[in-house]
Amino acid sequence: MMLRKRAWDMMRDEFPTVQEDASLAETIRVMREAMVEAPDSQVVVVLNKSGKLAGTINLWKLFKAVKKSVLKDENLLSNAGVDWDQQFANACLICTQMRLEDSLMKNPPILKPNDPILVVLDIFLKSRRDWALVMEGEKVMGVVYVTDVYREMTRDMVQIFK
């Protein structure tokens, strides 16, 4: 049964998206909202004005972008007389101005809806990502996370272990 599973069977058809002209702050807000429903969400799909894939931004890219803005001020590194609350507020303001271009992943891991689970696992291993987009033509259909594959695999395995 497990080896019959396809990307389509495991994908989430509801996933966070932003337009390519969104700010870093907007992307962070969208990711947080997605995590309310799906705590293991890790990627935001970035679409261009015509609704086609422009790229993705994952948690690691968000962390790097936030670190870049938060640690931008040399005073933070010296620890001397720093008003941490004000520095954090300043960093948040910087995030509202930062665009996604520098943090965008232009070539995310891609699956086809009919890709079998072994192909899904292979894409995860080759891309060193724990998520992949499911695309049909130029349309993003969904996202598969490694946790989704794990749940599917172990559902059958646990029955065999009994």
TrEMBL record:
PROSITE patterns tied to this protein: CBS (PS51371)
Secretion signal span: none
Can you tell me which residues the record assigns to a coiled coil? none
List the SUPFAM superfamilies hit by this protein, alphabetically: CBS-domain pair
Q: Which keywords accompany this UniProt record?
A: CBS domain
Domain CBS, which positions? 10-74, 104-160
Top-rank taxon: Bacteria
The UniProt entry, under Pfam families, shows: CBS (PF00571)
User: Which Gene3D superfamilies has this protein been placed in?
Assistant: CBS-domain
Q: What is this protein called?
A: CBS domain-containing protein
Source organism (scientific name): Pseudodesulfovibrio sediminis
Source lineage = Bacteria, Pseudomonadati, Thermodesulfobacteriota, Desulfovibrionia, Desulfovibrionales
